[in-house]
Amino acid sequence: MVERNLVNVLLLGGGFMLIFTSFQTLGNIEQTIIDSIKKDLPSFAGDGYTSLAIIYAALSLSNWVTPSVLSAIGPRLAMVIGAITYCLFMASFFVPHVALLYGCSVVLGAGAALIWTGQGMYLSQCSSGDTISRNSGIFWAMLQMSMFFGNLLVFFTFQGKTHIDETTRSIVFAVLIAVGIVGLVFLTCLRRPSTSGDAPVELSHSVEPRQAFLNAIRLFQTPRMILLSITFVYTGLSLSFFSGVYGSSIGFTNAIGTSAKQYVGLNGVFIGVGEVLGGVAFGLLGTRTTTRWGRDPIVIAGGVLHMAAYFLIYLNLPNAAPFGNTDALSYIQPPSALVAMGCSFLLGLGDACFNTQCYSMLGGVFKSQPAEAFSIFKFTQSVAAAASFVYSSYCGLHVQLLILVALGIVGTITFCVVEFAVKRERPALERDYEK
């Protein structure tokens, strides 16, 4: 029944909301936290950007084998295994050691491939052609509510602190791990998708693991997926920027004032506000807007919002902000916390535009191969995110913004090209779906 599948989507969104309340909060503050750990423990040589780069590199490589794994164990078990790796990664911060940090980053990357590909496959199984946009929007809105709770915790616990002491760090880590474990419990409660009534997208589990891998390779080589991969690359670059680089850049800009570190958490809250508003809007109106106008107007709107945010960030924050505490200034003097939070909101809202429509595209257009399609999505997105975290250690803020602007424009265009082709084929696709 439709009601059962909607309950599954709500459970899925709730589990991801809790798990990523933990992880996205930690990712947002990781470089800031590690900077404080180094001051307390000079022998610790870990780096937050390097850890995040390792996570996304491992995720990208693992995505090529996840269709094979999912064909053997199914999406529900895959998501549970993936969730466990997130909890282990967060626990590693209680024992600051370079080998442990980077080793757990590799494990988390492999687990992230399982949880995200499993999520895409499971969401497709719980959706029909009529409900995929709605379910994608509901899931995305619930997922991005994770930006509120963890970052509000950071906002209050980091209040008035220029150095994050060990006691404060331990409190934050303990709360985040406990929340992640509750999210893991949610995922264990997921039920098998309904196959009666308005039948959801089906995916055969009889596909051999080797065949699933070959199917993913062939799908990746199709012109349509190649074009979409450029859009996916951009979403990976923007993800790494607003989830790791931008918050740290705010915290490192001394001219913002003594509350600069506190604004790292508030930045995450405003990103979350934009993400949730976008997810709710496109969840409630997704089917109506997709049927009437298609997905391209929403993606174009997301591109415009991101371009506006990048321009304001260029004016507001200094070029050296990603590297560490700096007294440098940019064009707005002194840097405005209000403008910084406004940019956070625009980044979140624009990201919701891109990702809800990518989910809708993959779950609707590639409904016969959801595991392969979502694994390609996460592969290209993760390669881009890993590359971004690598060059973030060497490139100033202005160069990073220039890269984002260029890929954002190209990625918006390529998505629209595919969507125009889908619009032309939609009548035939609807007839095939009815059969």
TrEMBL record:
It is found in: Membrane. The keyword tRNA processing does not apply. One of its GO terms (cellular component) is membrane. This is UNC93-like protein MFSD11. It is a multi-pass membrane protein. Belongs to the unc-93 family. The keyword Glycoprotein applies. Pfam families: UNC-93 (PF05978). The lineage of its organism: Eukaryota, Metazoa, Ecdysozoa, Arthropoda, Hexapoda. Keywords: Glycoprotein, Membrane, Transmembrane, Transmembrane helix. It comes from the Eukaryota. It comes from Anopheles merus. Its main location: membrane. CDD domains: MFS_MFSD11. The chain crosses the membrane at residues 7-26, 46-65, 77-94, 100-117, 138-158, 170-190, 225-246, 266-286, 298-317, 400-422. InterPro entries: Ion_channel_UNC-93, MFS_trans_sf, UNC-93-like_regulator.
